[in-house]
Design a protein that fits this description.
α1 packs parallel to α2, α5 packs across α8 and α8 (393-408) packs across α9. A hairpin with a 4-residue loop joins β4 (34-39) and β5 (44-48). The N and C termini lie far apart (57 Å). By secondary structure, the chain is an alpha+beta fold. The protein has nine helices and 19 strands.
């Protein structure tokens, strides 16, 4: 017999949430086979079986919080292991209850998914469906991508709404009137924050509370870098089997600017300033569950193709929830690109203990003055949010001006790479 336990993933991770069981009680399991997905604060981890056999017990359900070292399943060795009894109540009639005992209300049955097709649902939605005895296959999600959420389960299992009397406003002492409609009314949709979203919220709040954050802006004429990229694209793809994007230009420009302004590549540790002599650049990637920041290691030692390949590989791993803790640990500076979503301007929040973050935005055709004449040029606003405790205004403005000069004269980047 082998117990499946929650493994130690990192020193800072002590618990997780069961996201999805890919095996059910009675299924054959091979040694090293992935049987359950665990969601933690930082990454989703695939837990494997250390022994071949039959999965006989599942001790934690989807949506449950489990601790490191906790046993969550049991695998019986050998092909002939006997599966544990199914948890669903039998279809045949149960024996009559003793006359002196009142018949208790029967719990809602747990309906297993009968389809071989994988149903995409949040852990909280799966847990609510189990509690209500609802087959996930019978639910029609609102999400166009087919993901079942808590509100879909609640809407499927609820009776026609009964409109309650209007809720009277409550007046806190010394404060304004606050309207609190009942959570079960059709005016409010309640959705539990995922573990990942709770962690993101906590860390962003810590950054804003524990730093003297300030943001400075500049604008970049993208004409020359777009023209260079267009001229070199076909040759670049042929030689490197990957497209030449803008991120490699901005990464190389950021490295050059960090070398010129080392306090932007620093952090505060106690009453000391630690200036990093390495250039591990975090690239913010948006996923369905929130923003993650995998890191391009030693970006100062890599050429454009190597940077583009690293970014593409990390983004793919992020979308497939396969990022490891080592992929995201230890970055010295971060770049985020809100332009891919159409953002024209923003004030990005710094990542963890880093001293600054560079924000890229949409490229927009705008009229600008060039040599005394008004021309239409492809322009991008860039923002640098920074910790004013470490970085003075002179350095922050100079850093952004260096980025601007290098992107507007991209041949300089090629010569320095």
């Amino acid at each position: 017999m082998a117990e499946i336990k929650v493994p130690e993933l990192a020193e800072s991770i002590t618990e997780g949430t069961i996201a999805q069981w890919v095996k059910k009680v009675g299924d054959r399991v091979e040694k090293g086979e992935f049987i359950v997905e665990l969601e933690t604060d930082k990454v989703n981890a695939e837990i494997i079986s250390e022994e071949a056999g039959v999965l006989t017990q599942i001790l934690a359900q989807e949506g449950d919080t489990v601790l490191v070292g906790q046993t969550i399943a049991v695998v019986e060795a050998g092909v002939g292991a006997t599966p544990a009894p199914a948890e669903e109540p039998k279809a045949e009639a149960a024996p009559a209850a003793p006359a002196e005992t009142a018949a208790p209300a029967q719990p809602a049955p747990v309906v297993e998914e009968t389809s071989n097709e994988r149903i995409v649902a949040s852990p909280a939605a799966r847990k609510l469906a189990r509690e209500k005895g609802i087959d996930l296959a019978a639910i029609s999600p609102v999400d166009p991508q087919g993901r079942i959420r808590v509100q879909d389960v609640a809407a499927h299992g609820s009776a026609p709404a009964v409109h309650a009397a209007p809720v009277a406003p409550t007046a806190p002492v010394g404060g304004p009137l606050v309207f609190t409609p009942a959570a079960e009314s059709d005016r409010v949709t309640v959705e539990k924050m995922s573990r990942r979203r709770q962690t993101i919220a906590k860390r962003l709040l810590e950054v804003t509370q524990n730093t003297a954050m300030l943001t400075t802006f500049n604008e970049i004429d993208m004409t020359n870098v777009m023209a260079l990229r267009k001229r070199k694209q076909e040759e670049f793809v042929k030689e490197n089997d990957i497209k030449l994007g803008f991120m490699s230009f901005f990464t190389k420009a950021a490295v050059a600017a960090l070398k010129k302004y080392p306090y932007v590549n620093a952090q505060i540790v106690g009453d000391e300033i630690h200036k990093n002599n390495f250039y591990d650049i975090g690239i913010a990637v948006s996923t369905e569950e929130g923003l993650v920041v995998p890191v391009v290691r030693d970006a100062d030692r890599k050429n454009f193709a190597e940077i583009e390949k690293d970014i593409a590989e990390l983004a793919q791993k992020a979308r497939e929830k396969k990022l490891s803790l080592s992929d995201m640990a230890g970055g010295s500076f971060t770049i985020t690109n809100g332009g891919v979503f159409g953002s024209l301007m923003s004030t990005p929040i710094m990542n963890g203990t880093q001293a600054a973050i560079l924000g890229m935005h949409s490229i927009v055709q705008r009229p600008v003055a060039v040599n005394g004449q008004v021309e239409i040029r492809p322009m991008m606003y860039v923002a640098l949010s920074y910790d004013h405790r470490i970085i003075d205004g002179k350095d922050s403005v100079g850093f952004l001006k260096t980025i601007k000069d290098l992107i507007e004269n991209p041949e300089d980047l090629l010569l320095n790479s």
